[in-house]
Amino acid sequence: MVQLLFAAALALLAPAQTPAGAERRCGWLANPTPANYWLTDRDGEWTIMVQGGYQAEGWDEMPDMTTRGWVRTNGYYGYGCACMTVSTDRASMRVTRIYAATPVPLRQCRNDRTLRRPS
């Protein structure tokens, strides 16, 4: 019984596992205005959040993405380069769940010829 309780306690303390089917996507992360986010990678533009509408699960746990190479285009808002571990709905081109997100240097996106430059 003690071993079972110990195993249950360890499971609660362990970091959450990324489920099968989650993808690592890297590209331009745009946040041009409040509560509007898109990730543009080699496969296209993925909607993360639209003000007053759609919101991917986990967006509120996303770290501050302006810490590395954020380009301001509208006050605090703008774009940067990011890698994200996400689940997606390819039919709607939506990110359905964010598991992890990391800002990366702008040069990573600038040097990727498969990415369309942000406007």
Overview of the molecule:
With 119 residues, the protein is mostly beta strands. It has one domain (19-109): OB fold (Dihydrolipoamide Acetyltransferase, E2P). 14% of the residues lie in helices and 40% in strands. The protein has 2 helices and 6 strands; from the N terminus they run H-E-E-E-E-E-E-H. It has helices at residues 2-13, 106-110; strands spanning 23-31, 37-41, 44-49, 71-74, 77-89, 94-104. Strands 1, 2, 3, 4, 5 and 6 form a 6-stranded antiparallel sheet that branches. Strand 2 (37-41) and strand 3 form a beta hairpin. The termini are far apart. The model is unreliable at 1-15 (pLDDT under 50).
Structural class: mainly beta
Strand content: 35-45%
Average of per-residue pLDDT values: 86
CATH class: Mainly Beta
Q: Provide the succession of SSEs.
A: HEEEEEEH
Number of beta strands: 6
Rounded Rg: 17 Å
CATH architecture field = Beta Barrel
Low-confidence stretches: 1-15
Level of helix content?
10-25%
Largest sheet: 6 strands, antiparallel
Count of alpha/pi helices: 2
Might you state the CATH topology name? Answer: OB fold (Dihydrolipoamide Acetyltransferase, E2P)
Walk me through the topology.
Elements: H1 2-13, E1 23-31, E2 37-41, E3 44-49, E4 71-74, E5 77-89, E6 94-104, H2 106-110
Antiparallel strand pairs: 1-2, 1-5, 2-3, 4-5, 5-6
Summarize this entry quickly.
This protein is mostly beta strands and about 120 residues long.
What key attributes describe this structure?
119 residues, mainly beta, OB fold (Dihydrolipoamide Acetyltransferase, E2P), 6-stranded antiparallel β-sheet, 14% helix
